[in-house]
Amino acid sequence: MGSVEITAKEEQRDESRELLQNLPAEIGMGGNLLYLYQGFWCPQVSIKGMMLFQQHFKAQETDLILASIPKSGTTWLKALTYTIVNRSRYSLEKSPLLTSGPHGVVPFLEFDISSENHFQEQNRLPNPRIFGTHSPYPALPCSVKDSAAKIVYVCRNPVDMFISYWKFSVNIPKEEEKHLSLEDAFDKFCQGLHGYGPFWDHLSGYWKASLERPDKVLFLKYEDMKKNAVLYNRKLASFVGLPFSMDEEKRGLIEEISRLCSVESMKSYEATRTGTGPLGIPASAFLRKGEVGDSLNYLTPSMVSRVENLIREKLQDSGIADDSSGAKNGARKSEMHAASTSNTEIPKIAIIFVSMVAMGFLALFLFKFWQKKKREELHARLFKFLDHEQKQLHFLASNENFSTNEPFNLP
């Protein structure tokens, strides 16, 4: 049995190696080599896994597939979904999430399941099984798309996603790959040269699927979830078929789950502090800030405008940026546009600071101007006084009856 498995692995390795030799390749924004596989730029480490996923994964009717492009809220979505689904199985205080971490309890189909036998082993997992994937929608196996298995997709403001991705890549030690500067990485990003990019095609694939089958694909926006975690946790629970009861809501369970799965809470997990994530990367590297609008601290207005123009150009026909009906997955008109532009406005504190500085310079200018005018006025009076004094002395010299007791007054 062991020799058969080894032979199968060797064949898979040869197959993926031969495939890579015939695929277009480019350096991506993370400094790593990407291959154009089935229309998307995929990292070498994931292509073999994607092939196995497509060939051997047999979806079950109760499966939950959590999909995203990297650094779009993947870790957060895994934590929330796992906790919601398993809330009756584990108390929050004893959840395996704390000791195994989001990536430990929800495996990646491309990275964590590396052989046909591993896929078969997943059949022993309790229902509903939960898996994560970065695969684009067209690359999902037919068993996922054609079954009753449900998909939850999370997207994020592309500029925030870019900064999170770039920060992640520069913090990972590399032997043969070099880190790109922010400017070079941004240029690659705008060309779609990032993991599973272009982001506009990745996003639109799941968006269209959510419009066609809203009962099967739930399309979430990171910014909406951050703004109203309780509402979207409730929505997520209902979508997966495990809605919160009135008693659970009264006990504040939704809020407790939100706190347990927050970025700050996840940073304190034992699994985060001491464990590793996919590909042996330290688990702590998968959690940075999770803030909305953090890209403003790194990108220039022209960079943000470039991404906005890309969104308008690439997604104008998809309906994402202009969902007029507002009925599909809670989307409203202009929400997608807001996700890509609302965070590009100058923060209020910056406006106040600039205004105060400007007022200070204006006050200083007026004070200097007043001083100058006063000096000119004083000089004019002094010259007039001296001229008057000279005339008086001249008069004194020419008039013997002039009284020296008469005071000199400034005119």
From TrEMBL:
Molecular function per GO: sulfotransferase activity
Keywords noted in UniProt: Membrane, Transferase, Transmembrane, Transmembrane helix
EC class of the enzyme, as a word: transferase
Region (Disordered): 320-339
UniProt KW ATP-binding keyword: no
Ranges annotated as spanning the membrane: 349-367
EC number(s) recorded for this UniProt protein: 2.8.2.-
All residue ranges annotated as the Sulfotransferase domain in the record: 62-319
Protein family: Belongs to the sulfotransferase 1 family.
Name of the protein in question: Sulfotransferase
Organism: Salix dunnii
